[in-house]
Write a structure and sequence with these properties.
globular, Transcription Regulator spoIIAA
């Protein structure tokens, strides 16, 4: 998995590409946990994300918990396969998906 980060003031966009799974999620989790200070809007763009595992879902849940205390988090551009995973797991009720 690759990710590109765009920060503008207190807004951060993380563009994901590839697979967010057991192997790749620790890197993203560490980045998010260490980079959200002063951020009140987090957008995770998933146009190029091909797959997400339960480990990836945990990263999103952890980010959501952090952002619930300091602002807003939104998920954008989900492919149909990713949207299905969110619906089946109930994450579509927890996350803001646009």
């Amino acid at each position: 998995m690759e990710y590109n980060v765009i920060t503008s003031g207190s807004k951060m966009v993380i563009e994901l590409e590839g697979r967010l799974d057991t192997t790749t999620s620790p890197k993203l989790d560490a980045f998010i946990r260490n980079s959200l200070e002063g951020i009140n809007e987090l957008c995770i763009a998933m146009e190029k994300l091909e797959y997400i595992s339960s480990a990836g879902l945990r990263v999103l849940l952890a980010a959501q918990k952090i952002m619930a205390n300091q602002g807003r988090m939104v998920i954008t551009g989900c492919r149909e396969e990713i949207t299905e995973i969110f619906e089946i797991t109930g994450f579509s009720d927890i996350l803001t998906i646009e």
